[in-house]
Amino acid sequence: MLAVEGLRFAYRKGGVELFDGFSHEFAPAQVSVVTGVSGRGKSTLLYLLGLLLTPVAGRVRFAGRDLTQTSDAERAQIRAGRVGFVFQDSELDPARPVISSVLEPALYAGRSRKAMRGRALELLERFGLGERAEHKPGQVSGGQAQRLALCRALLLEPDVILADEPTGNLDRENAGIVLDALRDAAHTQGSTVVIASHDPFVLEQADQVVTL
Q1: Which residue, 53, 70, 68, is CA-closest to 18?
Q2: Neighbours of 115 (CB within 10 A)
Q3: Contacts of 61 (CB under 8 A, 6+ apart)
Q4: Is residue 127 left, alpha or beta, with left meaning phi > 0 and alpha meaning psi from -120 to 50?
Q5: Tens-of-pLDDT digits for all 212 residues of the chain?
Q6: Which DSSP string corresponds to 177-201?
Q7: Of 87, 176, 188, nearest to 101 (Cα)?
Q8: How far apart are alpha carbons 170 and 156 in whole angstroms?
């Protein structure tokens, strides 16, 4: 489903290069954890896999297709419908009820928010957040906010889920809830799940560990 070949990346021309021609295939229905010391590019790799950045060399393949040089519109369409993101900061809109943030992927994928509302509420109930649907992000705890971000990522049952340090700010109980959900998405739904983390608790539960 998802692979990189000969990957190289720099944030500016002539800047420090990352990855040194890195190649890897991320298996579907598995949780792959990308780890390594700070500065090795764990988060950057997720942004490349999610088509938010473009490598200076090499390829990003999605379902067998090289998407490195595709148009911004096509990349955005793939992100919207087939990729779910869980960022370290939950990235919830502070001005809107949390259910609106959970429903964001439906908007970008051209799906009816009204039609997807039932699915969103189902996810909120699953993660103990049903009563928080109409709360603003400032009215929920950090652990709840991260579970809300997970609901958003799972809304459309994406082929690929990319999670950047999803347990970084969580206690062990909430970390376990998030990891169980990501493992379920991989093993039950068949998603390709890639997590960037240096947390030993996360590494212990990986199907595959990739060290940069």
Answers
A1: 53
A2: 9
A3: 2, 3, 4, 5, 67
A4: alpha
A5: 799 999 999 998 878 899 999 999 999 999 999 998 888 899 999 999 999 999 999 999 988 888 888 888 888 888 888 999 988 776 777 778 889 989 999 888 889 888 899 999 999 998 888 888 888 877 888 888 888 889 999 999 999 999 999 887 788 888 888 899 999 999 999 999 999 999 999 999 899 999 99
A6: HHHHHHHHHHHTT--EEEEE---HH
A7: 87
A8: 25
